[in-house]
Design brief:
alpha+beta, Beta-lactamase, five-stranded mixed sheet, five-stranded antiparallel sheet, 21 strands
C-alpha cells in the first residue's frame, strides 16, 4: 500500500514561508511601534518630568492668599500622603501595580475576553496605573478611545517603568491625576473638596477622592453625592478585600456621611490685592522668562493677613451703616428711587429686599445703588502695602477702587495747600480772614461761572490761624491761602505731584477745595511722606519671586525720594494732629477710643458724593473712601467724612495697633523745630502781661513783631 509523503523540499518551503511571514509580521509590528513611538516622550523627557504647578501668593505672615494656575496642581511628596490614600489608589485602580512592568497581562486578557463576548471593543478597559500616568502626563498620546492610543500608552508606560521606581511612579500619579472641578493631584483636590491638606485626609475621604477617578464628572461628591457615596463604598470594599483595612476601619469609614464637602471653591484672601499682584506679575513674566500660571512660583508679598481681616471687617460694618442711610433716603424720595432703580423694568419689592441685603442686587443696578469703598493701608516708612480693600467685600468685582478709581478728594486735599504755605515759609500762626470769597469756576462745557464757596457749617469769622483753619476744615481759609499767594495754585499742583499724585490736578483757585480727581492709594502714599519726615515711598506689594525650587528670581524693595523738608513734614503733621485731637477727626478719640499719636484729615465733596478719611501714625498710614460708583448719586445729606468714613478708619487703626502690639510712638521732632511762647490773642511776640500759649515754629520763622493789644507804656 502506497503512502503519500511530501518531499522534504516541500516541508522546507512551508517552514521558510512561515518564517518569512513571521519575520514580516514582526518587522511590520516593530515598524508600526517605531512609527507610533516617534511622537512619544524620550527617555530624557521622562527623566526630567516637570509638570505644571500652581503659583502661590503668600502674605508677609506666611498665609496663602491665592493661587494662579491653568490646571490646579500642587506637588506633594509621597511620604506626606497618608498610607490609606496610597492603598486606596492601588486597590481600586491597579491591584497588581507592584508586580507588573507597566501593563498587567491578566487585565489585558480579561479585557479582550469581555470585549469579544460583548461585541464592544471598549466595554472593558485594561489600563494599569502606569498607563493612566502616561495618559495624564503627555498630551501627544491623545485622549480619544482607540487601539492606537492604547499602544502608545503601553509603550510610554514601559518607558516610565524603566525610568522610575514604583514609589516614584505612584508619587507622580497622585500629583497629576484629574479629580474634577479643575483640580489635578491629591493636594489640590483635598483643598477643593475638604478645605485642608492631603496629609489630613481620613480613610473615607481618601476613598471618596479615589472613587472619583474613573469619571470625575459622574462621581463628583459635589454634583452627585449619592453616586460618590456608592463609589466610595466600592473602594472601601476593595481595600478591605485586599487587606488594606481592618474590619472595624472598614465599617467606620463606610458609615461616614458627606458633611464636610466644600460646595463652593474658597475665594482667595484679599482678592483685590491678589489681582493687583497678578497684574504686576504678568508684566514681569516675560522679563523673567517664567509663566505665572504653570511654573509653580512662590510670590511673597507685603500684605499682612491679620490687618487685611481687620480692614475688611471695619469696611463691612461701615458699608452696612452707610447703605442703610442711602436706602432710607431713597425709600423716602420716590422720584429718585424710581429713576435709579429702573422700577419700570425691575419689581420694586425685589429691589428693596436686595438693598436690605436679603437678596443679591442685580448687576445693572450696582453702580447706582450700592455704597462702595476703597481702603488702603501702607507702612509709611517704606511704602509696603499692608492691607487693601478695593470694593465691597460682599460684592467683589474686577474694579479695584484703591488703584483705579478717580474721585474728588474734597478737604483731604487741603494738606497739599497747607504744606505749600509752610514750605513757602509761612508759620502756623499766620492769620487770614474767615470771610466769603468769589471763585471763577469752569464748567464742563468750557464756560466760566462765579462761585461763592462756603464753610461746611456756613460760618464766617475774623482773623484765623492756619492751625485753626485746618482744625475746623474752613474752606474760606484754604481758598484765601491760594488767592493771596500763601500757596499759589500752580505751586500746590507741583507739591501734590512731588508727593506722588499722578492725576490731572487743575491749577485753579478751586484747587483749595479738592475739586480735581485723585486715586486713593496715591493719597495715602502722599500722607505717608508726612509721617516719614518728608520722604515719599512708592507703594509696592511684592517682596520677592521664587521658583518652585526656592531660587530667588527677583527681589522688590522700597523706592524712596525726599519730597519735603523734615521740618515742613513735621509742622504739617502737627497741624493734622490737631484735627485728630480737637477737630473734625475727634470722634476717633472719644467715640472709638483710638489713643495712639495720630494725624489725619476728613474730606467731603459737594453734595455728599464722596466721604474720606486719611490719616497716619508713625507706623501705619491708612485712607478710606466711601461713595457710589456713579458719582452723581449722593450718600445723603450729612454723610460727610467724619460720619461716613472716619468710623471704619478709627476702628481699623485701633484694632490694628492692638493686634500688632505697636507702641504709642510719637512723631520725631526735627532739631530745627522749636517751642515758642506767643500772645494767645494776637499770635505775636508777647509782652509780660499778654495771655500766653506755646506754639511750634521752624527756627527763624518765630514771630518778632510785638503784640499791639497788650503793649505796656
Amino acid at each position: 500500500m502506497a503512502t503519500n509523503k511530501k518531499p522534504k523540499s516541500d516541508i522546507a518551503k512551508i517552514f521558510l514561508r512561515s518564517l518569512i511571514v513571521v519575520l514580516l509580521g514582526a518587522i511590520s509590528v516593530t515598524g508600526f511601534v517605531i512609527y507610533l513611538a516617534q511622537d512619544l516622550p524620550s527617555l530624557e523627557q521622562l527623566e526630567n518630568y516637570d509638570p505644571d504647578l500652581v503659583t502661590r501668593i503668600y502674605s508677609s505672615d506666611g498665609q496663602i492668599l491665592d493661587e494662579l494656575f491653568v490646571q490646579k496642581r500642587v506637588f506633594v511628596e509621597l511620604k506626606d500622603i497618608p498610607a490609606h490614600m496610597r492603598h486606596a489608589v492601588v486597590a481600586s485602580e491597579d491591584k497588581r501595580f507592584y508586580d507588573h512592568w507597566g501593563i498587567s497581562l491578566r487585565s489585558v486578557f480579561r479585557a479582550v475576553v469581555v470585549n469579544i463576548v460583548s461585541f464592544d471593543p471598549y466595554a472593558q478597559g485594561f489600563s494599569s496605573l502606569t498607563q493612566q500616568l502616561a495618559r495624564s502626563l503627555y498630551k501627544t498620546i491623545g485622549f480619544a478611545d482607540s487601539y492606537t492610543r492604547k499602544i502608545k500608552e503601553i509603550i510610554t508606560a514601559v518607558q516610565i517603568e524603566r525610568t522610575y521606581t514604583k514609589d516614584e511612579i505612584l508619587e507622580m500619579y497622585l500629583n497629576t491625576v484629574h479629580f474634577g472641578h479643575g483640580t489635578y493631584g491629591v493636594e489640590a483636590a483635598t483643598k477643593r473638596f475638604f478645605g485642608k491638606e492631603s496629609k489630613e485626609l481620613t480613610i473615607d475621604e481618601s476613598a471618596i477622592l479615589v472613587g472619583v477617578l474613573p469619571s470625575p464628572a459622574s462621581y463628583s461628591p459635589i454634583r452627585h453625592p449619592e453616586r460618590a457615596i456608592r463609589r466610595r463604598n466600592t473602594v472601601l470594599r476593595l481595600m478591605r478585600e485586599q487587606g488594606y483595612l481592618k474590619l472595624a476601619e472598614y465599617k467606620e469609614a463606610k458609615s461616614q456621611i458627606l458633611e464636610n464637602i466644600h460646595y463652593e471653591p474658597k475665594r482667595g484672601t484679599a482678592p483685590y490685592f491678589t489681582e493687583y499682584v497678578r497684574r504686576i506679575l504678568e508684566k514681569e513674566d516675560e522679563a523673567l522668562d517664567v509663566n505665572i500660571y504653570r511654573d509653580g512660583l512662590k510670590i511673597f508679598t507685603t500684605l499682612d493677613s491679620r490687618l487685611q481681616s481687620i480692614a475688611e471687617a471695619a469696611v463691612l460694618r461701615s458699608i452696612e451703616y452707610n447703605q442703610n442711610k442711602l436706602n432710607k433716603r431713597l425709600f423716602n424720595d420716590r422720584e429718585e428711587f424710581e429713576q435709579l432703580s429702573y422700577l419700570t423694568i425691575f419689581p420694586e419689592d425685589s429691589v428693596k429686599m436686595m438693598l436690605k441685603g436679603e437678596m443679591e442686587l442685580y448687576k445693572d443696578l450696582r453702580t447706582k445703588l450700592l455704597v462702595q469703598s476703597a481702603f488702603i493701608v501702607l507702612n509709611p516708612k517704606n511704602g509696603s502695602i499692608l492691607a487693601m480693600v478695593g470694593g465691597r467685600p460682599d460684592y467683589h468685582d474686577q474694579f479695584n477702587r484703591t488703584t483705579q478709581a478717580k474721585r474728588q478728594p474734597g478737604s483731604v486735599f487741603k494738606p497739599f495747600v497747607y504744606t505749600t504755605a509752610l514750605d513757602n515759609g509761612y508759620p502756623i500762626t499766620e492769620q487770614l480772614l474767615n470771610q466769603p470769597v468769589v471763585l471763577n469756576v469752569q464748567n464742563m462745557d468750557g464756560s466760566w461761572v462765579k462761585w461763592k464757596p462756603q464753610n461746611y457749617d456756613l460760618s464766617t469769622g475774623g482773623l484765623t490761624t492756619l492751625r485753626e483753619g485746618l482744625r475746623k476744615s474752613l474752606n474760606l481759609i484754604s481758598v484765601r491761602m491760594v488767592q493771596q499767594g500763601f500757596a499759589p495754585a500752580e505751586q500746590v499742583k507741583k507739591t501734590s505731584q512731588r508727593m506722588g499724585i499722578s492725576t490731572n490736578i487743575r491749577a485753579v483757585d478751586a484747587i483749595a477745595l479738592g475739586t480735581s480727581e485723585v486715586i486713593p492709594i496715591e493719597m495715602v502714599a502722599a500722607y505717608s511722606a508726612l509721617a516719614n519726615k518728608g520722604v515719599y515711598s512708592e507703594p509696592f506689594g511684592i517682596l520677592r519671586i521664587e521658583d518652585r525650587y526656592g531660587n530667588v528670581l527677583k527681589k522688590f524693595g522700597p523706592k524712596r525720594e525726599e519730597v519735603l523738608s523734615a521740618e515742613t513734614a513735621y509742622l504739617m503733621t502737627d497741624l493734622m494732629q490737631t484735627v485728630m485731637n480737637r477737630g473734625t477727626g475727634g470722634s476717633a478719640r472719644w467715640k472709638y477710643l483710638f489713643n495712639h499719636p495720630a494725624a489725619g484729615k476728613t474730606g467731603t465733596t459737594q453734595g455728599w458724593s464722596d466721604a474720606w478719611f486719611v490719616g497716619f501714625t508713625p507706623n501705619i498710614a491708612a485712607g478710606i473712601w466711601f461713595g457710589v460708583d456713579d458719582y452723581r448719586v449722593s450718600l445723603g445729606k450729612g454723610q460727610d467724612g467724619s460720619r461716613a468714613a472716619l468710623p471704619a478708619w478709627a476702628e481699623f487703626m485701633r484694632d490694628a495697633h492692638k493686634e500688632l502690639g505697636l507702641p504709642h510712638d510719637k512723631f520725631e521732632r526735627p532739631e530745627n523745630i522749636i517751642d515758642f511762647e506767643i500772645c494767645s490773642v494776637t499770635k505775636s511776640s508777647p509782652w509780660p502781661n499778654c495771655p500766653l500759649e506755646t506754639e511750634i515754629f521752624k527756627k527763624g520763622t518765630e514771630p518778632t513783631r510785638k503784640c499791639k493789644i497788650h503793649k505796656t507804656y
